[in-house]
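Aim 2, interim progress. The first record below pairs a target sequence with its structure tokens.
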Amino acid sequence: MKPIIEVLLIILDFYWFVILASVILSWLVNFNVINSRNEVVRTIWRITYDLTEPAYRVIRRVVPPLGGIDFSPFILLLFIYLLQRYLTGYVLPYVW
């Protein structure tokens, strides 16, 4: 059971970085720092969109964008952080 929880923690860490990449990429595209018509940028954008949008959609149903600012990435990062803290603090020490 312990290796399963450790793999889950690694997946959550990876997903944390995917969310950060998605946020940074959206800022760079919106401020015209990088061109979204570039094939590499478009591929990275699509990958991060496909990985993060299902989770964002669930959060957006509960918390709509406030004043044009989308808080769903922040809420998702907070949820991942709290889940990691719960797994490492309360579950992992009691698993063989």
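The second target in this work package is listed in the same format:
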Amino acid sequence: MRIAISGAHRVGKTTLAGALADALAGHALVPEPYYLLEDDGHEFEETPSLEDFEAQLERSLTSLEQAGADVVFDRCPLDLVAYLRTHREAAAFDLDDWLPRVRDAMATLDLVVFVPIEAPDRVPVDRADARLRARVDDDVRDLVLDDALDLGIVAVEVLGPVEARLRQALAAIGAASR
């Protein structure tokens, strides 16, 4: 199965992605595009620019295009679309230019696991970051759970500590594979 873990930053996606890859025999873990780009020498601005997020979107799309059949992705393209749509320079981002590739890439996923910000928040963040994170969380929820772009996404929201999230994700994987 091809599974993506989706959500805003600092919600526990990477922890869940690693636990899920470990729990699923033969599944590889593809790190989030930010880290893949850093490994390639990309230098991000302290506050990522629109171009930084577009580079991450491109890397996410490429990862989905090149990966095999049994993979857990830490992030999906819609996460980066949400960051781009909520960016202070969002007016300069044209989703229509990206939509055909996003649509094709998302169609290769069997399941998207959405990790939301919970109340109370499990991860303390400063006020400015909390506002951005909340906007991104709302937009990812709209794109993934509500399928706002009508991509035919199969998605599940997981809550609680990592063990509970893992159980919920594994149950959804079982249901999706039937």
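The mean pLDDT is 95. This observation will shape the mutagenesis plan for the next reporting period.
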